[in-house]
TrEMBL record:
MF (Gene Ontology): ATP binding; protein serine/threonine kinase activity
Region described as Disordered: spans on this chain: 385-412
Biased composition (Basic and acidic residues): 385-395
InterPro entries: Kinase-like_dom_sf (IPR011009), Prot_kinase_dom (IPR000719), Ser/Thr_Kinases-Pseudokinases (IPR051681)
Source organism of the structure: Circinella minor
Domain Protein kinase: 194-488
Name of the featured protein: Protein kinase domain-containing protein
Length: 559
């Protein structure tokens, strides 16, 4: 049974708390019609007068607790440690409901005769002998798939995630059982445990991507005094377009990069299907984009700290993966307003040439690197804006088909780590300029130009310029960016010209938005002349007409 695969404190929690509480109300856990693989008489007879009473017992039960120091948090990633007794209570339940442990729950059948009962016992013994095989989780998978009408692609994705999690955890389990290693958990939470859902904007389903929400987490074991990270959560929709290439990720790696609580599903009445979503901690300090909008620095300390934090995440990720959608809304500030974590795995893929998409045209503009316009060179065509000032836009050869493909069109370059560096270059510029790109207005390339900032530190401007190089081969890697950021001196005040620039540009964009905000019914992109498209800054699975988007980067020496 499951006990032999758990550390002692988790095994004690399973027998003394999880099984009795689940057995008393299995429907609240989406386990009605299921039973644990094997139970004892003591487990079946143990009763608590509610979850709060059970928690009070747990507070005194040191054998069921982890050691009270974050260094010894079991079944926790580096960024998801166990901090106090209430947090431990929640963490214990994530162990029980981790999808690699759900083979432990088997259908509860009404036996008409002794022969049927013996057959079920034999089946249970077979599961016990090979508990982590894909077939052992099928009863539970079939149960939730039918109950919630999970989309077939997302059912397959759940099976894939299960297989990957089992593979890595079974490798580490012998060490974990001795306390020398840590296992990853990825629980599946029933959708009824999430209430007060608030849809999040920034593109979403209308742009070909899965919708996302902020919600309140209300599991049956919810406490009166809820630990902060288990109260309000962020539900990040998973967009599944190509199962042959998407999500070929070992869970242990992206867990170390993106703090994930678990998985759940969201029902879409438009399609009559349920879809997988990631359950993430709602960042108490918001996103980097929100930080850029509300905070004006007076020196380089916070911009430098944030730049180091974000670059380190990218540097660590690039050992194995490319993110593919780095931008300030996907950088969440969990622990302080100077520490950023990457979010979103929609476009993430292995950092190896054989695994790359042949033509990547998704993501959020203007963070999309210029090489995705053409496989050859980018011809920079000049246009005159309405005030008579010059600008640039990327122009690609080919048929001009706005679908980004088709016979005769030169397709975009494959997604590589250099694309993340280009996006990082824009973020480095934003950390000083404090300009953000709206999702509710068509972006005028003059108003939202990315240009050298007067008075900016030379080392910072040089780093921006190098990251924004048109040729991806000329951009530095994340390690080099990190080392150069480390060498930037601390406690250096911003030049007064930089402060003036921040205020002036903010006023400029504020006045623009007063007259140019889009209504919900208006499209987020439009053709403004025969070879130029203006767009709002939203994330799309495919950016149609990407070749005609204006280039906001102006007057940097990026060739």
């Amino acid at each position: 049974m499951l006990l032999q695969y758990l550390i002692l404190s988790d095994a004690k929690f399973y027998t003394e708390y999880a099984v009795p509480l689940i057995s008393s109300s299995p429907e609240r856990f989406d386990l009605d019609g299921f039973r644990p693989m094997s139970t004892t008489k003591e487990m079946r007879e143990k009763r608590y007068d509610g979850f709060e009473i059970a928690f009070q017992h747990f507070q005194q039960d040191t054998d069921a607790q982890y050691e009270m120091h974050p260094r010894f948090g079991r079944y926790a990633s580096k960024m998801d440690l166990v901090w106090d007794i209430a947090d431990q209570w929640y963490q214990k339940w994530t162990v029980i409901f981790s999808i690699d442990h759900l083979w432990n729950w088997v259908p509860l059948h009404q036996h008409e005769n002794e022969e049927q009962q013996q057959q079920q016992q034999q089946q249970s013994q077979q599961v016990l002998q090979r508990p982590f095989q894909p077939a052992t989780i099928e009863p539970w998978l079939n149960h939730i798939s039918q109950r919630h009408n999970i989309h077939p692609n997302h059912r397959k994705l759940l099976e894939r995630i299960y297989g990957q999690l089992v593979k890595i955890n079974q490798t580490n389990r012998p060490l974990a059982l001795t306390g020398a290693s840590v296992l990853n958990t990825l629980p599946f939470f029933p959708p009824s445990w999430f209430i007060e859902k608030e849809p999040q904007g920034h593109g979403g389903a209308s742009e070909g991507l899965a919708a996302s929400f902020v919600a309140r987490f209300v599991p049956p074991y919810r406490l009166t005094h809820v630990p902060e990270r288990w109260d309000r959560v962020f539900l990040k929709g998973l967009t599944v377009m190509d199962l042959t290439r998407q999500f070929m990720l070992e869970p242990n790696y992206f867990f170390s990069t993106i703090p994930i609580h678990g998985l759940t599903i969201h029902f879409d009445p438009k399609t009559d299907y349920s879809y997988l979503v990631l359950v993430l901690k709602k960042a108490p300090y918001g996103s980097l984009e929100e930080n850029l909008e509300r905070y004006t620095p007076t020196n380089y300390d916070k911009p430098r700290a944030l730049a180091l934090s974000v670059t380190k995440r990218i540097k660590d990720l690039h050992w194995e993966f490319v993110h593919g959608n780095v931008h300030p809304r996907n950088i969440l500030l969990h622990f302080a307003d100077t520490i950023g974590d990457l979010a979103d795995i929609t476009f993430m893929q292995r950092n190896s040439q054989s695994e790359h998409y042949c033509c990547h045209r998704g993501g959020r503009w203007p963070y999309i690197a210029p090489e995705f316009c053409t496989t050859n060179h980018i011809q920079q065509a000049q246009y005159q804006d309405e005030k008579g000032e010059g600008g640039e836009h990327y122009h690609c050869g080919g048929s001009g088909d706005n679908n980004g493909g088709g016979e005769g069109q030169q397709q975009g370059a494959p997604l590589t780590s250099a694309a993340d560096i280009y996006a990082l270059g824009i973020i480095l510029w934003q950390l000083v300029s404090r300009i953000t790109f709206p999702d509710n207005a068509l972006i005028d390339p003059l108003v939202y130009r990315i240009e050298p900032i007067p008075g900016i530190m030379k080392e910072w401007e040089d780093l921006i310029t190098d990251c924004l190089k048109t040729d991806p081969g000329k951009r530095p890697n994340a390690y080099t960016v990190y080392r150069r950021l480390e060498k930037i001196p601390e406690r250096v005040d911003l030049d007064p010209r930089v402060i003036d620039y921040i205020h002036r540009r903010r006023q400029e964009t504020k006045f623009f938005l007063q007259d140019h905000q889009l209504s919900e019914s208006q499209p987020t992109f439009a053709e403004v002349d025969k070879d130029q498209i203006w767009t709002a800054s939203v994330t799309r699975w495919v950016n149609h007409g990407l070749d005609e988007y204006p280039n906001l980067v102006q007057h940097f020496n990026v060739l």
